[in-house]
């Protein structure tokens, strides 16, 4: 069981920001990554749709033999994480939540900004996180419609990207935020632009490294952490997409520097099948 792969999924390429951290922190592990690009982005879809997609994807990853699943999408985590855990109790399922706790510990101004999608802000997971950790700190919520689309299109820099980011950053900075939380896995791919536009005093938090470390702890507790010599690495990573495979392969190379030949999946009557 320890040699089985880890499953990671997102609506698109954003979850690759989590994939690269998992590969970095757990180099002996093999990973199956699934991008549901037929439905990207999830952030503007209704809860019932997202829950259905996530359930079908989890079933597919389990059929591929995955020993654990990471929901590498803040929107899907906010809406579908607990239903997935209830539906598949025999496998560890991890999700993402905005890094409000470390942001609250880090801020000096007492104002924290959170960049996320509408669905993430509306989810119970986000509300519970803010309620538990924010305390007296003011949390400024910034809906970032369209930013995930820019990342999907590979537009990570340039005048248009800067203009979009300035529009999102300005309200948070004007409110006094000195710390910004990235509440979508797509956003770390423009983190350098956010830091540049926000100025040297702005701290920008990406939760992906913490998720990868926590995954290692969970696998260790479950007794399924893959044992390997220090010079051994995961023997194979597999990639699947419900979108255009060639375009996805180019995005993987551009975003995380990995060479892959992704496998095509298609939706048929609400279920995933090989295309």
What is the gist of this entry?
This protein is α/β, with parallel strands linked by helices. The chain is built from 11 helices and 11 strands. The radius of gyration is 18 Å and the shape is globular.
Question: Can you offer a commentary on this structure?
Answer:
- With 275 residues, the chain is α/β, with parallel strands linked by helices.
- It folds into two domains: 6-96 and 209-274, Rossmann fold (3-Layer(aba) Sandwich); 100-206, Rossmann fold.
- It is 44% helix and 18% strand.
- The chain has eleven helices and eleven strands.
- The protein has helices spanning 16-25, 47-63, 74-87, 100-106, 118-122, 124-133, 147-152, 159-174, 191-198, 208-222, 245-256, and strands spanning 6-10, 31-35, 68-71, 93-94, 111-116, 138-143, 179-182, 203-205, 238-241, 263-268, 271-274.
- The strands form two sheets. Strands 4-3-1-2-9-10-11 form a seven-stranded mixed sheet, with helices on both faces.
- α1 (16-25) links the parallel β1 and β2.
- α1 (16-25) crosses α10 (208-222), α2 (47-63) crosses α3 (74-87) and α8 (159-174) crosses α9.
- The longest helix has 17 residues, at 47-63.
- The chain is globular.
- The mean pLDDT is 94.
